[in-house]
Amino acid sequence: MDDQVIQLAEQHYIAEQTARHIRIWGNQDQLPLCPNFKEIWSSIAPTLRQPYVERVRALASSATPTGAQAQYRDILKTLYEKSYAEMTQSVAEETWFVPLSQFEQSIGQLGTRVLSESYQSLDIQDDENSDDDRTVCSQDEDMDMAHTSVPMEYDPRKYEDPKISTLETVVKEGLLALNKLQQAFEGSDVRNADIDWKPQIERTLSISQTEKVIIGLNGSTGAGKSSLINAIVDGENIVATNCMRASTAVATELLYNDGESRYKAQIEFIELRDWEQELRILFEDLLDSHEDVIRGDLQKNSDAAVALDKIKAVYPLLEVKDILNTSVEALMEHSNVSDLLGSVHVFEQNDPKVFSRMVKSYIDSRGRRGRSEKGPEKGRDMKYWPLIRVVRIFLKAPALITGAVLVDLPGLHDTNAARVEVAKEYSKRCSAHWIITPINRAVDDKVARDLLRQSFKMQMQMDCSFNNITFVCTKTDHITVSEVQDSLKLRLPPMQEREQRDRKRAQLGAELKLLQEGKGRVMEELSLLDDEIEELESCLFNEESSLNLSQLTPIKRKRHSDLEMDVTANPNAEVPSTPILHVSATDTQPSADSEIDELLRKFRSLKSERKVLDTQRREIYQQIQINKAALKRVQAESDNMRADTLRECIEARNEYSKHEIKRDYANGIRDLDEEDQDTLAPSDRSKLARNYKKIEDELPVFTASARAYQKLRGRLRKESAVAGFTQLEQTEIPQLQRHCISLTERAREASAMRFLTQLKQLFQSISLWSLETGQAHIMSAEEIQELEAEFNSTMVELKETMVAEVEKHIDSLRHEFEKTIIRRFDPAVKHASEKIPGIISGWNAPRSEGGLHIQTYRATCRRRGMFRELDWNQQL
C-alpha cells in the first residue's frame, strides 16, 4: 500500500476522532484535552485501518478540490464535524467511525462550493510540529490565558496639567514661525541702525529647549535604587542590579533618547589630574600595609585590599610586586589609561540585552575582593569603572519624555574622590531629591529623621527646597503576615475559618485517593478482560475466518496504555472494547464449527462483564471529577483568602509607613527650626513659624514594588509570581512615573513662558522695524530729535529708580545677614570652642576608648577629612 495513502488515512482518523471527542464533550464547561490520536493510530491493527484507506480513495475520486496539505485537513475537519454534529451525544459515544456510505453522502451534500467557502472561513496555521487534535482542543486554554493577562499599555501623562500641553503646543507653533522667519532672512543683508535680526532669532531659538529637571536618588546600599530605576524607565536590567553587593560604582544619569536608536550611552572619564591624585592616595594606602601586601595577607575589604584591587582593575597585567616597585608617574604613562582620561565614549544599541551588558561593563562595581577567577586568561581585561566620572544612558522611557533626569548616585562615601565631588555637585544641581529606603526600615526605624542628617537638613533649609523631597519605600512585596498582623493589630479572617477549609481540603483529598484506588482496581480488571478479548479476537477475526469487517459494530477496543489516557480525557465516553460481532442466522451456516459458536458465546459473556465494569468506571470517574472540582474550589477559596490577607497586610503596612514618614519628616523640620530659634530675637521667631501640618500632608511618599511591577509587565520570567499584586497600580510604579512627569511641569511652564515672552518681544521689535522702514512712516528731523529727547529723559528716570531699588535691596540684604548670620557668629564661636577640643580628642583617643585606628586616621587625613562614613568637616 502506498505510504502517501497511509498518511492520508491517518489524517482521516485524527480528524474523525477529534470531531467525535468535541461532540461528546461539547456541552461541558471546559473541553478536556484530546488524547494523542496520532500516537494511538500507530497501535491500530492494519485490518482496522482499512475503512480510513477506503475514505481516502472515496474523497480522491470525488469532485472535491483537496488542494494543499493544510486545505486537505480543513476539508476533513468540515466533513467529520458535520457528520458528528448530526448525532446525539449518546450515539457519538457508541460510534467509533462513521460508515463509508455516510461519509460519501456527506461529501455529496457539502459539494465543492460549500467546502471551498468553509475553507475560506478557516484561519488555521499549518504547523508541522503540532498535532491537529491537540491544536483544536487547546484553544480554550489559550483563551483562558488571554483573559488572565494584565494590560501592558498605559499613558503616564494622562493626568498631567492640560495647561502645560497647551503652552507646549503654542511653543511648537512659535518655533515653526521662527523657522520660517529665519528662512526669510537667510541670505539677506537687511539691517537698519545696526540691527541684525538673525542672531536674535538664533538666540530666541536657543531658549526654546526645556531645562532638564534632575532628580537625585539618595539611599544606602541595598535599598533597591537600581531596581526602582529599571521599573520607572520600564526596562528589566538597564541599570545593573545585584543582591550580593553594590552594583552602582559611578554616578548614572538616565535621560530620554530623542535619537533613532532605542538606547544610547555616554561614558565620561575623569581628568588626568583626578586619576593622578587618586593613585597617590591609593599608593599611600598600600604603603600603610606594605608588609601585609608583600605577604599577601591583606584583610578582606581593608583599605589596602580595596586600593590594590582598584589598581589591578585598571592595570590587570601588573602583579603585586610590580605595583609596589612602580611609581605614580609610570602608571600615568600607560597608553591604555592616558588615552581614556578626559575622553567620552558613546555607543548606541537597539538590543536591550546587548546594551545592558555593555553598560554593565562600565558601571558594575568590583572594587572589593571576592573569589579569585580561574584560568590564566581570567581577569586580564581592563576594568573601566575606577576611571569613570559619570555615565549617561539615553532611552525611550515615557516617564522621562518631559525632561526628567534620574540620577543614580553611588553615595557620598565612595573611596574615589572625583566621584565624591560628582555626587556633591549633583546634590547642588538636583531640582528634586528622592530618598530611597526599604519599607521594613521605614517601619522599624525613624527613617525620615535618620536620612535627614544635619548636613542634608542645612542644605534643604538654605536652598528652601523642603518641598522638593520625595520618599520612596521599596520592596513592599517583602512581607511577613504574622509580624505585620501583630505590630499593626490587623483584624484578619478568623483562624477557625481557615482551619475549617484546611479540614475540608484534607477530607476531599482522602476521598479522592480512595476513588483513585477504586478506579485502579476497575481498570486492572478491564485490562485482564481486554487480554482475554484480544485472544478471542485473534481466533474470530483472521484470514481464515468467514467474518468480515462489515459485521462489526463501530466500537473498537484500545490497548490499556491508550485506554488510561482516553479515560482521563473522556469521563463519559465508553471505554472502547473489541469489535462486537453481530452474527445472525443468515450469517452462519448450519455446518458452522461448534468451536466458533463457543468462542462467540464466551465473547458475549466477556462483553457483558466488561460493560458492567465500564459502567462502574464511569461512575467512579464522575465522582472523581466531582471531588476534583470541589477540591479545586476549596483550594481556590483558600488561595483567594491568603491572597486577600496578604494584600490587606501590604496595604496596611504601606499606609502606616506613609503616615509615620510624613509625621517624622515634619517633626524633623520642626526640630531644625527650634534649633534656629535659639539664636533669633523674640521678634523674629514668629516669622520663622511654618505650617507643619501642611508640610506633613503635602510630603509625597510612595510604597513601591519594582519586582511585582516587572513581573506584571511580563518580565523576570525565571521568577515566580509575586503574591499580593494583581494590578500595576498596586505596585505604585505607575504613580511614581506620573510623579516623575509632574516634577517637570513647573520647569516646562517657566521655559514655555520664557520662550513665548522672548518671541513676543522679537516679533514686536521686527514689527516696529518694518513700520519704520516703510516710506509712509519716515520721520522728520524734528520728530526724531523730539523722540530722542523723550527717550533720554526716560532713561535718566529709569537709572535713578534702579539705583534707588538696588540700594534698598542691599540694605535689606545687610539687615538679613546681620539678623540671621552675623548675630550668630559669637554664640557659634563660643559653642565651637567648647565642643571642638572634645571632638578632636575623640579622634586621637586610644582604640579602647573609641578612638580611630591609625590607618583610618591617615586615610581620612589624605582624603581631606572624608573617608567612608567619617566626615570630620561635618563633625566640626
Automatic annotation (TrEMBL):
InterPro entries assigned to the protein according to its UniProt record, in alphabetical order: Dynamin_N, P-loop_NTPase
Dynamin N-terminal domain boundaries: 217-455
Pfam families referenced in this protein's UniProt entry, alphabetically: Dynamin_N (PF00350)
Superkingdom field: Eukaryota
This protein's name: Dynamin N-terminal domain-containing protein
